[in-house]
Specification:
By secondary structure, the chain is mostly helical. About 55% of the residues lie in helices and about 5% in strands. The protein has a single domain, classed as lambda repressor-like DNA-binding domains (434 Repressor (Amino-terminal Domain)).
Length: about 90
């Protein structure tokens, strides 16, 4: 699945992901171009950037690899989420 509901969206509030949008714009890509490069629709990228949903682990990894940035630097996860994900893997 390409998305996970955010805590904010579950409460009816959305927080735009400016870090992801900024990374995309710095690479001079449209939402559609980024979507095509990582295998999702432009609507999905729009939802990620507008904070309606967060990408699942598979797409967080693809975005991190594409932009050569950490999840946290792209606004995709917090340090706390990264630590708990690492624990789940171990």
């Amino acid at each position: 699945m390409a998305r996970e509901k955010t805590a904010a969206s579950a409460k009816g509030k959305t927080v735009p992901n400016e870090q992801l949008r900024r990374a995309r714009e710095q690479h001079h890509l449209t939402q559609k171009e980024l979507a095509d490069k990582i295998g999702v629709t432009n609507i999905t990228v729009n939802r990620w950037e507008n904070g309606k949903v967060k990408p699942g682990p598979y797409y967080r990894q693809k975005l991190s690899k594409f932009f050569q940035m950490d999840d946290e630097d792209l606004g995709l996860s917090s340090a706390v989420e990264n630590r708990s994900s690492t624990r789940e893997i171990l």
